[in-house]
Amino acid sequence: MTTDKIIDGKAFAANFLGIVSKEVKRLKSSHELEPGLAVVLVGNDPASAVYVRNKGERTREAGMHSFEHRLPADTSEEDVLTLVAHLNEDATVHGILVQLPLPHQIDEQKVLAAINPDKDVDGFHVTSVGRLWTGGDALVPCTPYGCLLMLKDRLGDLSGKRAIIVGRSNIVGKPMAALLLAESCTVTIAHSRTQDLPERCREADILVAAVGRAEMIMGDWVKPGAVVIDVGINRVEAPERGVKEDGTVKTKLVGDVEYAEAIKRASAITPVPGGVGPMTIACLLRNTLVAACQQNGIEPPVL
Ligand code: NDP
Protein backbone atom coordinates (compact mmCIF):
# COMPACT_ATOMS: atom_id res chain seq x y z
CA MET A 1 0.00 0.00 0.00
CA THR A 2 1.63 3.24 -1.10
CA THR A 3 -0.32 5.32 1.46
CA ASP A 4 1.54 3.54 4.28
CA LYS A 5 4.74 4.72 2.69
CA ILE A 6 3.81 8.39 2.75
CA ILE A 7 5.15 10.28 5.74
CA ASP A 8 2.36 12.74 6.52
CA GLY A 9 4.29 15.80 7.66
CA LYS A 10 1.14 17.78 8.49
CA ALA A 11 -0.17 15.12 10.86
CA PHE A 12 3.30 14.54 12.30
CA ALA A 13 3.79 18.27 12.93
CA ALA A 14 0.31 18.66 14.46
CA ASN A 15 1.04 15.83 16.87
CA PHE A 16 4.47 17.24 17.73
CA LEU A 17 3.01 20.72 18.29
CA GLY A 18 0.49 19.16 20.66
CA ILE A 19 3.36 17.68 22.69
CA VAL A 20 5.22 21.03 22.70
CA SER A 21 2.04 22.86 23.82
CA LYS A 22 1.56 20.41 26.70
CA GLU A 23 5.12 20.99 27.85
CA VAL A 24 4.60 24.77 27.64
CA LYS A 25 1.51 24.41 29.85
CA ARG A 26 3.47 22.33 32.32
CA LEU A 27 6.28 24.91 32.41
CA LYS A 28 3.82 27.71 33.02
CA SER A 29 2.15 25.94 35.93
CA SER A 30 5.34 24.56 37.50
CA HIS A 31 7.62 27.59 37.07
CA GLU A 32 5.31 30.46 36.02
CA LEU A 33 7.47 30.75 32.92
CA GLU A 34 6.02 31.60 29.50
CA PRO A 35 8.48 30.99 26.63
CA GLY A 36 8.79 34.00 24.33
CA LEU A 37 9.83 34.10 20.68
CA ALA A 38 10.83 37.35 18.98
CA VAL A 39 10.71 37.43 15.18
CA VAL A 40 12.32 40.29 13.28
CA LEU A 41 11.16 41.05 9.75
CA VAL A 42 12.90 43.75 7.74
CA GLY A 43 11.24 44.86 4.50
CA ASN A 44 8.22 43.79 2.48
CA ASP A 45 9.18 40.43 0.96
CA PRO A 46 5.72 38.80 0.58
CA ALA A 47 6.94 35.23 1.22
CA SER A 48 8.79 36.33 4.37
CA ALA A 49 5.70 38.22 5.58
CA VAL A 50 3.63 35.02 5.25
CA TYR A 51 6.25 32.97 7.13
CA VAL A 52 6.37 35.54 9.93
CA ARG A 53 2.59 35.68 10.25
CA ASN A 54 2.41 31.87 10.40
CA LYS A 55 5.14 31.72 12.99
CA GLY A 56 3.33 34.28 15.15
CA GLU A 57 0.05 32.35 14.94
CA ARG A 58 1.63 28.98 15.75
CA THR A 59 3.61 30.54 18.64
CA ARG A 60 0.48 31.91 20.27
CA GLU A 61 -1.43 28.65 19.65
CA ALA A 62 1.33 26.79 21.49
CA GLY A 63 0.78 29.06 24.50
CA MET A 64 3.95 31.08 24.02
CA HIS A 65 4.50 34.82 23.83
CA SER A 66 5.06 36.10 20.29
CA PHE A 67 6.95 39.38 19.81
CA GLU A 68 6.87 40.59 16.22
CA HIS A 69 9.15 43.39 15.04
CA ARG A 70 8.42 44.65 11.54
CA LEU A 71 10.91 47.17 10.24
CA PRO A 72 10.85 49.13 6.97
CA ALA A 73 12.99 47.96 4.03
CA ASP A 74 15.39 50.91 4.38
CA THR A 75 16.25 50.15 8.03
CA SER A 76 19.98 50.53 8.66
CA GLU A 77 22.21 47.68 9.79
CA GLU A 78 22.92 49.63 12.97
CA ASP A 79 19.22 49.80 13.85
CA VAL A 80 18.79 46.04 13.34
CA LEU A 81 21.84 45.37 15.51
CA THR A 82 20.46 47.70 18.20
CA LEU A 83 17.16 45.81 18.18
CA VAL A 84 18.96 42.45 18.42
CA ALA A 85 21.02 43.77 21.36
CA HIS A 86 17.82 44.87 23.08
CA LEU A 87 16.21 41.43 22.51
CA ASN A 88 19.36 39.72 23.83
CA GLU A 89 18.89 41.64 27.10
CA ASP A 90 15.12 41.12 27.39
CA ALA A 91 14.50 38.28 29.87
CA THR A 92 10.99 37.68 28.50
CA VAL A 93 12.47 36.84 25.07
CA HIS A 94 13.96 33.33 25.01
CA GLY A 95 14.30 32.89 21.26
CA ILE A 96 15.27 35.37 18.54
CA LEU A 97 14.69 34.73 14.86
CA VAL A 98 15.72 37.22 12.20
CA GLN A 99 13.82 36.37 9.02
CA LEU A 100 16.13 35.98 6.02
CA PRO A 101 16.82 37.31 3.47
CA LEU A 102 17.64 40.78 4.78
CA PRO A 103 17.77 43.84 2.51
CA HIS A 104 21.11 44.36 0.74
CA GLN A 105 22.34 47.18 3.02
CA ILE A 106 22.40 44.76 5.98
CA ASP A 107 25.15 42.16 6.47
CA GLU A 108 23.25 38.96 7.34
CA GLN A 109 26.28 37.27 8.91
CA LYS A 110 26.87 40.26 11.16
CA VAL A 111 23.26 40.22 12.35
CA LEU A 112 23.20 36.44 12.94
CA ALA A 113 26.50 36.70 14.85
CA ALA A 114 24.99 39.39 17.11
CA ILE A 115 22.26 37.06 18.43
CA ASN A 116 23.00 35.60 21.86
CA PRO A 117 23.71 31.91 21.03
CA ASP A 118 21.52 30.85 23.96
CA LYS A 119 18.59 32.53 22.17
CA ASP A 120 19.59 31.34 18.69
CA VAL A 121 16.49 29.24 17.98
CA ASP A 122 17.38 29.02 14.28
CA GLY A 123 20.68 27.34 15.20
CA PHE A 124 22.65 29.35 12.63
CA HIS A 125 25.13 31.09 15.00
CA VAL A 126 28.71 29.77 14.74
CA THR A 127 28.56 28.87 18.43
CA SER A 128 25.43 26.77 17.81
CA VAL A 129 27.15 25.10 14.85
CA GLY A 130 30.20 24.34 17.01
CA ARG A 131 28.03 22.95 19.81
CA LEU A 132 26.17 20.73 17.32
CA TRP A 133 29.33 19.25 15.82
CA THR A 134 31.04 18.75 19.19
CA GLY A 135 28.04 17.05 20.74
CA GLY A 136 27.12 19.84 23.16
CA ASP A 137 23.66 21.10 24.06
CA ALA A 138 22.67 22.84 20.85
CA LEU A 139 19.68 24.65 19.48
CA VAL A 140 19.56 22.68 16.24
CA PRO A 141 18.48 24.14 12.86
CA CYS A 142 14.76 23.48 12.61
CA THR A 143 14.36 21.84 9.20
CA PRO A 144 17.03 19.15 9.71
CA TYR A 145 15.77 18.48 13.24
CA GLY A 146 12.27 17.90 11.86
CA CYS A 147 13.74 15.47 9.31
CA LEU A 148 15.54 13.60 12.07
CA LEU A 149 12.36 13.22 14.12
CA MET A 150 10.50 11.83 11.11
CA LEU A 151 13.34 9.39 10.36
CA LYS A 152 13.44 8.14 13.95
CA ASP A 153 9.68 7.74 13.95
CA ARG A 154 9.89 5.45 10.90
CA LEU A 155 13.14 3.62 11.60
CA GLY A 156 13.64 3.72 15.36
CA ASP A 157 17.35 3.28 16.04
CA LEU A 158 19.36 4.79 13.17
CA SER A 159 22.67 3.37 14.35
CA GLY A 160 24.74 1.83 11.56
CA LYS A 161 22.43 2.99 8.75
CA ARG A 162 24.02 4.36 5.62
CA ALA A 163 22.77 7.89 4.98
CA ILE A 164 23.34 10.21 2.06
CA ILE A 165 22.49 13.89 2.17
CA VAL A 166 22.44 15.58 -1.20
CA GLY A 167 23.22 19.25 -0.50
CA ARG A 168 25.79 20.84 1.80
CA SER A 169 24.21 24.15 2.82
CA ASN A 170 24.69 25.57 6.30
CA ILE A 171 20.96 25.53 7.00
CA VAL A 172 20.05 22.03 5.81
CA GLY A 173 22.77 19.72 4.45
CA LYS A 174 25.56 20.21 6.98
CA PRO A 175 23.44 20.22 10.17
CA MET A 176 21.53 17.18 8.83
CA ALA A 177 24.87 15.40 8.47
CA ALA A 178 25.87 16.34 12.03
CA LEU A 179 22.57 15.03 13.42
CA LEU A 180 22.78 11.71 11.55
CA LEU A 181 26.41 11.28 12.55
CA ALA A 182 25.38 11.81 16.18
CA GLU A 183 22.86 8.97 15.65
CA SER A 184 25.80 6.78 14.51
CA CYS A 185 24.82 6.67 10.86
CA THR A 186 27.54 6.35 8.25
CA VAL A 187 27.09 9.64 6.48
CA THR A 188 27.88 10.75 2.94
CA ILE A 189 27.46 14.43 2.10
CA ALA A 190 26.97 14.88 -1.66
CA HIS A 191 27.01 18.13 -3.62
CA SER A 192 27.32 19.50 -7.12
CA ARG A 193 30.84 18.10 -7.58
CA THR A 194 30.04 14.60 -6.31
CA GLN A 195 30.92 11.88 -8.81
CA ASP A 196 28.66 8.89 -9.48
CA LEU A 197 25.80 10.47 -7.50
CA PRO A 198 23.19 7.87 -8.62
CA GLU A 199 25.44 5.05 -7.38
CA ARG A 200 26.14 6.80 -4.08
CA CYS A 201 22.38 7.28 -3.57
CA ARG A 202 21.64 3.62 -4.35
CA GLU A 203 23.88 2.61 -1.42
CA ALA A 204 21.89 4.60 1.12
CA ASP A 205 19.31 3.35 3.63
CA ILE A 206 18.41 6.99 4.27
CA LEU A 207 18.33 9.55 1.46
CA VAL A 208 17.87 13.23 2.31
CA ALA A 209 17.49 15.51 -0.71
CA ALA A 210 18.22 19.22 -0.09
CA VAL A 211 19.26 20.50 -3.48
CA GLY A 212 16.61 22.92 -4.74
CA ARG A 213 16.31 21.29 -8.20
CA ALA A 214 12.95 19.93 -9.24
CA GLU A 215 12.83 16.10 -9.21
CA MET A 216 16.57 15.83 -9.82
CA ILE A 217 16.93 12.66 -7.72
CA MET A 218 15.52 9.96 -9.98
CA GLY A 219 13.32 7.18 -8.64
CA ASP A 220 15.77 4.49 -9.68
CA TRP A 221 18.51 6.13 -7.57
CA VAL A 222 16.59 5.01 -4.48
CA LYS A 223 17.74 1.80 -2.82
CA PRO A 224 14.77 -0.57 -2.43
CA GLY A 225 13.45 -0.15 1.11
CA ALA A 226 15.22 3.15 1.76
CA VAL A 227 13.56 6.04 3.62
CA VAL A 228 13.51 9.21 1.52
CA ILE A 229 13.24 12.68 3.03
CA ASP A 230 12.65 15.35 0.40
CA VAL A 231 13.48 18.83 1.72
CA GLY A 232 13.34 20.55 -1.66
CA ILE A 233 10.61 23.05 -2.51
CA ASN A 234 10.48 23.93 -6.20
CA ARG A 235 7.74 25.74 -8.10
CA VAL A 236 7.27 24.38 -11.61
CA GLU A 237 4.80 24.95 -14.41
CA ALA A 238 1.83 22.58 -14.35
CA PRO A 239 0.09 22.75 -17.77
CA GLU A 240 -2.22 19.92 -16.64
CA ARG A 241 -3.80 22.44 -14.24
CA GLY A 242 -4.63 24.88 -17.04
CA VAL A 243 -3.91 28.60 -17.23
CA LYS A 244 -4.30 31.51 -14.82
CA GLU A 245 -6.43 34.62 -15.49
CA ASP A 246 -3.38 36.41 -16.89
CA GLY A 247 -2.89 33.64 -19.46
CA THR A 248 0.21 32.13 -17.87
CA VAL A 249 0.41 28.45 -17.08
CA LYS A 250 -0.57 27.43 -13.56
CA THR A 251 2.19 26.18 -11.28
CA LYS A 252 2.65 23.61 -8.52
CA LEU A 253 5.24 22.70 -5.89
CA VAL A 254 7.45 19.65 -6.30
CA GLY A 255 10.39 18.32 -4.35
CA ASP A 256 13.92 17.37 -5.33
CA VAL A 257 12.94 13.71 -5.75
CA GLU A 258 11.07 12.10 -8.64
CA TYR A 259 8.28 11.21 -6.23
CA ALA A 260 6.04 9.03 -8.44
CA GLU A 261 8.90 6.63 -9.20
CA ALA A 262 10.74 6.90 -5.88
CA ILE A 263 7.69 5.83 -3.87
CA LYS A 264 7.69 2.49 -5.72
CA ARG A 265 11.13 1.65 -4.30
CA ALA A 266 11.21 3.49 -0.97
CA SER A 267 9.81 2.03 2.26
CA ALA A 268 8.77 5.56 3.22
CA ILE A 269 8.93 9.00 1.63
CA THR A 270 7.91 12.57 2.43
CA PRO A 271 5.67 14.26 -0.15
CA VAL A 272 6.04 17.87 -1.32
CA PRO A 273 4.09 19.79 -0.17
CA GLY A 274 2.98 18.34 3.17
CA GLY A 275 6.18 16.54 4.15
CA VAL A 276 9.15 18.26 5.71
CA GLY A 277 7.73 21.80 5.54
CA PRO A 278 5.21 21.70 8.42
CA MET A 279 7.82 20.38 10.86
CA THR A 280 10.05 23.44 10.50
CA ILE A 281 7.84 25.79 12.56
CA ALA A 282 7.07 23.00 15.03
CA CYS A 283 10.81 22.56 15.68
CA LEU A 284 11.25 26.33 16.03
CA LEU A 285 8.75 26.27 18.87
CA ARG A 286 10.46 23.23 20.37
CA ASN A 287 13.73 25.18 20.33
CA THR A 288 12.07 28.19 21.99
CA LEU A 289 10.74 25.97 24.77
CA VAL A 290 14.17 24.35 25.25
CA ALA A 291 15.86 27.77 25.25
CA ALA A 292 13.42 29.11 27.86
CA CYS A 293 14.19 26.14 30.14
CA GLN A 294 17.96 26.41 29.66
CA GLN A 295 17.98 30.15 30.35
CA ASN A 296 16.15 29.57 33.63
CA GLY A 297 18.16 26.60 34.92
CA ILE A 298 15.34 24.13 34.25
CA GLU A 299 15.99 20.70 32.71
CA PRO A 300 14.32 20.89 29.26
CA PRO A 301 11.92 18.12 28.21
CA VAL A 302 13.38 15.59 25.79
CA LEU A 303 11.61 16.44 22.53
P1 NDP B 1 21.28 25.75 -1.23
O1 NDP B 1 21.08 26.33 -2.59
O2 NDP B 1 21.94 26.56 -0.17
O3 NDP B 1 22.13 24.41 -1.39
C1 NDP B 1 21.87 23.49 -2.41
C2 NDP B 1 22.88 22.37 -2.35
O4 NDP B 1 22.59 21.48 -3.42
C3 NDP B 1 24.32 22.83 -2.53
O5 NDP B 1 25.14 22.22 -1.57
C4 NDP B 1 24.67 22.38 -3.94
O6 NDP B 1 26.01 21.94 -4.10
C5 NDP B 1 23.78 21.16 -4.10
N1 NDP B 1 23.52 20.91 -5.51
C6 NDP B 1 23.12 21.79 -6.46
N2 NDP B 1 23.03 21.17 -7.64
C7 NDP B 1 23.40 19.89 -7.45
C8 NDP B 1 23.54 18.77 -8.31
N3 NDP B 1 23.25 18.83 -9.60
N4 NDP B 1 23.95 17.61 -7.76
C9 NDP B 1 24.22 17.51 -6.45
N5 NDP B 1 24.11 18.54 -5.59
C10 NDP B 1 23.72 19.72 -6.10
O7 NDP B 1 19.86 25.23 -0.77
P2 NDP B 1 19.24 24.98 0.69
O8 NDP B 1 19.99 23.94 1.41
O9 NDP B 1 18.99 26.28 1.35
O10 NDP B 1 17.80 24.42 0.27
C11 NDP B 1 17.67 23.24 -0.48
C12 NDP B 1 16.21 23.04 -0.81
O11 NDP B 1 15.47 22.87 0.39
C13 NDP B 1 15.55 24.22 -1.54
O12 NDP B 1 14.59 23.73 -2.44
C14 NDP B 1 14.84 24.97 -0.41
O13 NDP B 1 13.72 25.69 -0.86
C15 NDP B 1 14.42 23.82 0.47
N6 NDP B 1 14.22 24.17 1.87
C16 NDP B 1 13.07 23.73 2.47
C17 NDP B 1 12.82 24.00 3.79
C18 NDP B 1 11.58 23.49 4.42
O14 NDP B 1 11.15 23.97 5.44
N7 NDP B 1 10.96 22.45 3.87
C19 NDP B 1 13.74 24.81 4.59
C20 NDP B 1 14.98 25.14 3.90
C21 NDP B 1 15.17 24.83 2.58
P3 NDP B 1 27.29 22.96 -4.05
O15 NDP B 1 27.49 23.26 -2.60
O16 NDP B 1 28.38 22.16 -4.63
O17 NDP B 1 26.89 24.15 -4.83
Largest sheet: 5 strands, parallel
**CATH topology grouping of the largest domain:** Rossmann fold
Total of DSSP H or I helical runs spanning 4+ residues: 11
Range of strand content: 15-25%
Overall number of strands: 10
**What is the CATH superfamily classification of the largest domain?**
NAD(P)-binding Rossmann-like Domain
CATH class of the largest domain: Alpha Beta
Mean pLDDT: 96
Quickly give the structural class: alpha/beta
Report the principal-axis shape: globular
Question: What integer value in Å does the Rg equal?
Answer: 20 Å
Ranges where pLDDT stays below 50 over 5 or more residues in a row are none
What CATH architecture of the largest domain do you see?
A: 3-Layer(aba) Sandwich
Write out the strand line-up for the largest beta sheet, numbering strands in chain order: 5-4-6-7-10
Number of domains: 2
Measured between the Cα atoms of the first and last residue, the distance is 30 Å
User: From N to C, what is the helix and strand string?
Assistant: HHEHEHEHHHEHEHEEEEHEH
What are the bound molecules?
Answer: NADPH dihydro-nicotinamide-adenine-dinucleotide phosphate
